[in-house]
Amino acid sequence: MIRSLNEVVGYKISATDRDIGKVADFYFDDAALVVRYLVVDTGGWLSGRQVLISPESMGEPEWSAQRLPLSLSSEQIEKSPTVGTDRPVSRQQEAALADYYRWAPYWPVAGMGAPVAVPVRSAETAKEKKEDRGDPHLRSVNEVIGYRIRAASREIGKVDDVIADTDDWTIRYLVADIGSWLAGRKVLVSPGWITHINWHDRQMQTDLDPAVIEGSPEYDPSSPVNREYEMRLYDYYGRPRYWRE
Question: What's the structural domain count of the chain?
Fold first, then answer.
């Protein structure tokens, strides 16, 4: 199911024996475009501690109740390795979580087949790695909200939301608020149509023509993104569809 991640922020998180907090953010892999963790604010239960939970431990979402059930007990979560969410998460911390919860590592591990190809890192991200500032591909959804989007040589709007397919937590769209250009309008842009991201300047570049974007199918946040709408969107831009017919 295609869902706004802004909408899911604030949903209750339920362990097998009790509610343990609410969704505060999502961490996604900017190379694979997949949500890797839900950031859960445990409130007064763990003295305000935030914990990372992989979608691998999630059951069937209860959308009408705004609740996401887990296959974990509150005791398991309480005793989990502490990961500070106020700074980038290191691979060592991710490995500790995967080992504790018995999650399958999503990164290449010796003896588990061919390594996954990732983009060449810039000098900046190499420096970040040297300074142990965390996995350079793990990004916060909350951080991306507000990034400027440029088409050709002009700014057309800002990222207003991120939309994911909650069946596998793949990120399908960025919601671009182009209200400063076309009053009140929001449109969807596939991450595959983003040609460059400058993380330092909080800016994204697309190869879409601004004049084409102007006439694109409008996105209504109050209406679900269904296959009919997606077909109109992809046909309008003449881009290959991500799903099989």
Answer: 2
